[in-house]
Design a protein that fits this description.
Blueprint (H helix, E strand, L loop, with lengths): L3 E13 L5 E13 L3 E5 L6 H8 L7 E6 L2 E2 L4 H5 L2 E5 L10 H11 L5 H11 L15 H14 L4 E5 L7 H12 L4 E6 L2 H7 L2 E6 L2 E7 H8 L3 E6 L3 H13 L3 E7 L2 E6 L5 H8 L5 E6 L3 H8 L2
Parallel strand pairs: 3-8, 3-9, 6-7, 7-8
Antiparallel strand pairs: 1-2, 1-4, 4-5, 9-10, 11-13, 11-14, 12-13
Helix pairs in contact: 3-5, 4-5
Amino acid sequence: MKNSIIETVNLTKEYSLKVGGKIKALNNVSFNIEEGEIFGLLGPNGAGKTTLVSILATLIQPTSGKAKVLGYDIIKNPKNIKSKIGLMLGDEMIYYRMTGMDNLKFFTRLYRIKNKAIKIREITETLGIYNKMEEYVSNYSRGQKLRLALSRVLLIEPEILFLDEPLLGLDPKTTRELIDILQGLNKTILLTSHQMHIVQQLCKRIAFLNKGSIIKIDNQENFINMLSQFIRVRFEINKKGEKKELKRELKSLDFINKISRRKGGYIVSMSDRKNYPDLLTCLGKYPVQKVQEIEPTLDDVFIELSK
């Protein structure tokens, strides 16, 4: 069994409100991450993901609870932690009015990195942006900015990477390329996202965070099995009389969990894929068009986990 390289116990973070009272951004969060693991923190916007990363990166302190990173206490030994981690907050922490090369040279001076020219070339070639290094960052695409931000982090040769929404807003091709790069780094990574497909492709274990609390921690296999329970099928039917008759028949089927009305048709939910043939047999009796399965949303997962 590998060593736990990140450990948290009942981490809580409260903020005081100007109008009085307090709000909990994190509520008794406990988990551990093993050395070499890519661990996913999945949750909607405002769930507390960035707050948790900021605490582990020693940027802010928790209100209560404990955490260790690489064996160091985040309160007692922040300097020991900062020198061994890399933090990437999207495409922040890079300067748009400088060239890519000037950005990285600045950070190599800031962190007193040796052999900077060799390292910059190696990392930017690996990330596919070496030929853009003399251009101003303001002219970069979203994907190129993220690659530059990741280059900055990798220059300091961190033992742990904290990546907060690192693939947000990218096209599928660029997303796939960066996923392959992250998987090939062989580093311990804590990755936050509100995109299920990103976490599913990258992470072996996943924690579901909502309203500051961890609802569930599970491995990818169980995560995929859980997603398979959320089967939703959308279809259109235009004839009013037959639409009502179809709805009545769908309601009589014991494997249908929910029927939602949508413009021009319905969305039906069921919890077992083996019932697909029966559903299609039912739909085949009516003038149904555009039958399509809908990918489960993050809300679907959290609603089910919160039951």
